[in-house]
């Protein structure tokens, strides 16, 4: 394999890479100006029909690196799968599918379909029957469709393996190889991986013969004067978390970044309704309106701007002391550009990032790119907000006492106390109460859900030394045959029963994929799985939240509603011989307790 070095690559624009006007227009709409190193190197090679082996971290812009050139090579007349992208998780599959949709907005009759476990199979079957040009899916579900013969790979022109090392870690490597063996021999391949473990090298040597290697080193750094923080919060609690942050953070001006134009307007309106001087800034606005908004921010007539990446390009306002990433960017370069809006003119800056547990991988990529840690940020409690409001209340009283002639007001209050035989402090308390009705000094707030703040520990064992490579290789070899039952990681687990088993042709990989995707449980926390004729059991961490269990009850695996419940029985662990796809599995007979 030949290799190119990003350090020697010259800076280009997307037009110089050979992309069509349709794709360039779409890139302009989403705000892309210059290609990242991985895009600059990969796009010309893929346009020429070459296969590539990309070694690059998450957040380097690799989705555009393969999606744009492969869209150029698409035949619009063929309404059957021509590109297939394999991704390790449901979230990444959806993200990649959305990117294809954004880039193809000016291509006629383009269709893309994300397919993953836990999703209704009937909807996928209908979409495949109608015809789609690009498939983005998790290995287990793609293999399901191949075995059902509902997915035809005969017209496939390109296969992409995105985050191949993550698919290996999750035990999908055997599935991946089986899918690759079904692709036409003359296919173009693109494999992207942050690392190159032996199993990935073996796949590359087998299927990517003659591929060009593109290796990107993370070199992005950020402003040293900016302190960076991350608050782990679910999407449904973001607005509540934001209003609490605004209560306790001291800033002159602020930018809140969201992903979409519509979100800028929606969030700005919600903040205005809560009494904040906030405005939206997005690409749908005229240049005059955007300039007026920025001018108001500069002059202090506006405190908060809710913006997209595109609208905030080049924005330079000294009084911006806080940048809040309401939506995490999928590109580390975008993150660096965002937080660079603060810490200007030698000032100290602060950046806060909202992230959900499923976005841990992106957080690690940001830390790697900026070479600075993300400090955990605690959502302000009701007590903290009360302290802040009391302090502001007292400061307002001081300003009033220092700046106003209060003699006439004193007479009114003293006369009122005398006539009604009231103590002065009682009347003062009553007046204070009336003043704080709209913003109570002692607010009653529900606690936000506690989420795991350790986003760096995913790739470490319980001793902090990193995963055992032999365990990783063993999982890769086992593939769809089963999971190691000898869990000794100190995590207490409970056993659950699911109503899908050997008769439904289920495999451990199906169960792991569905639970990991639907419940946001990392696969390393999923314990022993036993598959019986008509049901299976799976061990999960103790104390599963009620809402998560309720959601899992509605999940389908192999078109079967799993109806997950705590397992009260004691199934026999002794395996019996069998010829099913999963190899020998335990008997379905179980004693009653």
From TrEMBL:
Residues 453-498, 561-593 are annotated as: Disordered. Signal peptide: none annotated. It catalyses: ATP + H2O = ADP + phosphate + H(+). One of its GO terms (molecular function) is RNA strand annealing activity. It is found in: Cytoplasm. Residues 12-40 form the DEAD-box RNA helicase Q domain. SMART domains: DEXDc, HELICc. Its main location: cytoplasm. It comes from the Bacteria. GO terms for cellular component: cytosol; ribosome. This is ATP-dependent RNA helicase DeaD.
């Amino acid at each position: 394999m030949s290799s190119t070095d990003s350090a020697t690559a010259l800076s280009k624009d997307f037009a110089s890479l050979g992309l069509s006007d349709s794709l360039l227009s779409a890139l302009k709409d989403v705000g892309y100006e210059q290609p990242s190193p991985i895009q600059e190197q990969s796009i010309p090679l893929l346009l020429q029909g070459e296969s590539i082996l990309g070694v690059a971290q998450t957040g380097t812009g690799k989705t555009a690196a393969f999606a744009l050139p492969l869209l150029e090579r698409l035949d619009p007349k063929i309404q059957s799968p021509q590109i297939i992208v394999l991704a390790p998780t449901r979230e990444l599959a959806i993200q990649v599918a959305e990117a294809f949709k954004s880039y193809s907005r000016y291509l006629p009759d383009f269709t893309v379909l994300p397919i993953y476990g836990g999703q209704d199979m009937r909807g996928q079957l209908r979409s495949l029957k109608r015809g789609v040009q690009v498939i983005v899916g998790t290995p287990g579900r793609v293999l399901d469709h191949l075995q059902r013969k509902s997915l035809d790979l005969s017209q496939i022109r390109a296969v992409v393996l995105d985050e191949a090392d993550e698919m290996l870690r999750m035990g999908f490597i055997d599935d991946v190889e089986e899918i690759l063996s079904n692709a036409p021999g003359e296919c173009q391949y693109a494999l992207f991986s942050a690392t190159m473990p032996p199993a990935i090298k073996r796949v590359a040597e087998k299927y990517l013969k003659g591929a060009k290697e593109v290796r990107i080193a993370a070199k992005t750094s950020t402003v040293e004067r900016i302190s960076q923080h991350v608050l782990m919060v679910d999407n449904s609690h973001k607005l509540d978390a934001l209003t609490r942050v605004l209560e306790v953070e001291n800033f002159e001006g602020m930018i809140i970044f969201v992903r979409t134009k519509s979100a800028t307007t929606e969030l700005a309106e919600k903040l205005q309704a809560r009494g904040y001087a906030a405005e939206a800034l997005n690409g749908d606005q005229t240049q005059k309106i955007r300039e007026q908004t920025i001018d108001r921010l500069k002059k202090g007539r506006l405190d908060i701007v809710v913006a997209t990446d595109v609208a905030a390009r080049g924005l330079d306002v000294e009084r911006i002391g806080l940048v809040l990433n309401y939506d995490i960017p999928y590109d580390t370069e975008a993150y660096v550009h965002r937080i660079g809006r603060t810490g200007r003119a030698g000032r100290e800056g602060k950046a806060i990032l909202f992230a959900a547990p499923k976005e841990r991988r992106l957080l690690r990529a940001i830390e790697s790119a900026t070479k600075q840690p993300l400090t955990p940020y605690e959502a302000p409690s009701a007590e903290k907000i009360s302290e802040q409001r009391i302090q502001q209340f007292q400061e307002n009283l001081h300003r009033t006492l220092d700046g106003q002639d209060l003699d006439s007001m004193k007479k009114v209050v003293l006369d009122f106390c005398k006539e009604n035989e009231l103590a002065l402090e009682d009347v003062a308390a009553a007046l204070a109460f009336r003043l704080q009705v709209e913003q109570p000094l002692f607010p009653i707030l529900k606690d936000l859900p506690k989420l795991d703040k350790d986003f760096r520990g995913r790739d470490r064992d319980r001793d902090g030394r990193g995963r055992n490579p032999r365990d990783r290789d063993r999982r890769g070899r086992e593939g769809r045959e089963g999971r190691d039952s000898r869990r000794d990681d100190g995590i207490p687990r409970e056993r659950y029963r699911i109503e899908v088993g050997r008769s439904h042709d289920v495999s451990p990989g199906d169960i792991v994929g569905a639970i990991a995707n639907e419940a946001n449980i990392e696969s390393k926390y999923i314990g022993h799985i036993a598959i019986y004729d008509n049901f299976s059991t799976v061990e999960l961490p103790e104390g599963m939240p009620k809402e998560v269990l309720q959601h899992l009850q509605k999940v389908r695996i192999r078109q079967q509603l799993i109806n997950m419940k705590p397992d009260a029985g004691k199934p026999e662990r002794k395996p019996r011989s069998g010829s099913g796809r999963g190899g020998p599995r335990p008997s379905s007979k179980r004693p009653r307790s």
